[in-house]
Write a structure and sequence with these properties.
Layout lengths: L5 H15 L4 H44 L7 H9 L7 H10 L7 H17 L1
Length: 126
């Protein structure tokens, strides 16, 4: 196990017998055996817990893939089409700002530009 052969093991047993004594040696061996069993049990539980965590992560990935539809390769044409479908305004403040300027609902940039020029001429005339 640790590179300990039979001669080394006999020497360790003799030293333990001399130091601990023959009456307490069986109790010590029993306690050591129980400690090793508890250690193995704890390491097995940790391994099972890690395996369970890996399974949970795999289930999460599968769920995300099934919800988002990305279980296959990503099609770049779909991404470009999705970018074109993005809304004109990124947040509500932009909508309010354009609404205050009267630009919401305009269909073309030319109409917005004409209105801006008309507002400037009104300001210059006043």
């Amino acid at each position: 196990m640790f590179g300990i052969g039979l001669p080394e093991l006999i020497i360790i047993m003799v030293i333990a017998l001399i130091v601990i004594g023959p009456s307490k040696l069986p109790d010590l061996a029993r306690a050591l055996g129980k400690g090793m069993a508890e250690f193995r049990k704890a390491t097995q539980e940790i391994k099972e817990s890690l395996d369970m965590d890996e399974d949970i992560q795999e289930v999460k990935r599968d769920l995300v893939d099934s919800v988002s539809g990305l279980d296959g390769e990503l099609d770049l044409d779909d991404v470009e089409a999705e970018e074109e479908k993005r809304p004109k305004y990124e947040n509500y403040d932009d909508v309010i700002e354009d609404d205050e300027k009267g630009k919401v609902g305009k269909t073309s940039a030319e109409e917005i530009q004409k209105e801006a020029v008309a507002e400037e001429t009104k300001k210059d005339g006043e």
